[in-house]
Amino acid sequence: MLARGFTSMTTITSQADFEALADAALEQVQLALEASGSDADVESKADGVLELTFEDDSRMVINRHGAAREIWVAAPSGGFHFRWDGAVWRNTRDGAELFAALSKLVSAQGGTPVVLAARGRS
Prior knowledge:
alpha+beta; 6-stranded antiparallel beta sheet; 2 helices
């Protein structure tokens, strides 16, 4: 789901555009996690930060990084950066889409399979 007023071909041209798109993505991530049945406790913090805490007390942080205009994920398995490609947020290393990558990361960290998708997506 895109932020209001944005299309799949929108280019991020300002900090306000970035924040709107990133915040919409983070909201969708939070909703998807809550609907997924994952054992992760999801807490929304100030300034575009989601903190996930798992049953084993391990953590994952998903946040918007304004200077780079990216969404960053910090997990025990590593750090990942996602950049808007005009349609979806993609990993800057391997091109993986944000929700697909988070599905794998949350599944691995939580120990049970989880599939995350934004509303309106399969």
